[in-house]
């Protein structure tokens, strides 16, 4: 087993200030979460798995806004042993649990998001619109496999926007971009756009609004994400068709009103 596996088991020291920041704004960007060797080793596995599973071969200029935003490949942890080690990392799971202030976390699913050279914007949205989960104890780790300068399309946040209910009914689309841009403009929420250094990882809750700019470089923006939920998360009755599809795909076998304890949703930490 590669030496970086032990690195993924090492605890990460989170300060009280960091936890308080996350609890207030529902996002945080943390430096030195992963080292260069770990990212190189697991990044290679993620890239190879994405290349093998990607089914999007339509030219960029023939796709809609969602299709231009990124290439998506899901649940890499089921496809490759190295990807499994990465996604089920206790180091990342510990950070997720401590930020949310839960006793542990389960996997909801993982998702590679590769924004191609020339790829378009990712419109404003809140992830939990898609999730049939009973509480807001959800968090996504956004893990770049390389530095992300401003012109590559780093993740942008509306800090504290989990507090608003308007827009929670919107899927990722041109409509969500326009409507939420207008709505957020008249709030006091700070719009945060920052580059990512190598090893820097951000975490955001399911209801905080976020977007990403276009990739104006000639390189692919390679990002891996892991979506965690409270280990005691209960499945709710789906409120839209996307939530029903997510239940069937990511929580198969779970029952409404019960903890989502299925082989697809292992406890990662706690």
Distance between the termini: 23 Å
SS class: alpha+beta
The count of β-strands is 11
Rg over CA atoms: 17 Å
> How many structural units, i.e. domains?
1
| Fourth-level CATH superfamily | q2cbj1_9rhob like domain
CATH architecture tag: Sandwich
GO molecular function, one term: iron ion binding
Keywords: Dioxygenase, Oxidoreductase
Pfam family, one: PhyH
Cofactor: Fe(2+)
SSE diagram, text form:
Elements: H1 4-9, H2 16-25, E1 27-30, H3 36-53, H4 65-69, E2 71-74, H5 81-87, H6 90-100, E3 105-115, E4 122-125, E5 138-144, E6 155-158, H7 174-185, E7 191-193, E8 201-205, E9 210-212, E10 221-230, H8 241-250, E11 267-269
Antiparallel strand pairs: 1-8, 2-3, 3-10, 3-11, 4-9, 5-8, 5-10, 6-7, 6-9
Protein name: Phytanoyl-CoA dioxygenase
Keywords: Dioxygenase, Oxidoreductase
InterPro entries: Phytyl_CoA_dOase-like (IPR008775)
In short:
With 270 residues, this protein is of the alpha+beta class. The chain has helices spanning 4-9, 16-25, 36-53, 65-69, 81-87, 90-100, 174-185, 241-250; strands at 27-30, 71-74, 105-115, 122-125, 138-144, 155-158, 191-193, 201-205, 210-212, 221-230, 267-269.
What would your notes on this structure say?
29% of the residues lie in helices and 21% in strands. The chain starts with a helix and ends with a strand. The strands form two sheets. Strands 1, 2, 3, 5, 8, 10 and 11 form a seven-stranded antiparallel sheet that branches. Strands 4-9-6-7 form a four-stranded antiparallel sheet. With 270 residues, it is of the alpha+beta class. It is globular, with a radius of gyration of 17 Å. The chain has one domain: q2cbj1_9rhob like domain (Jelly Rolls).
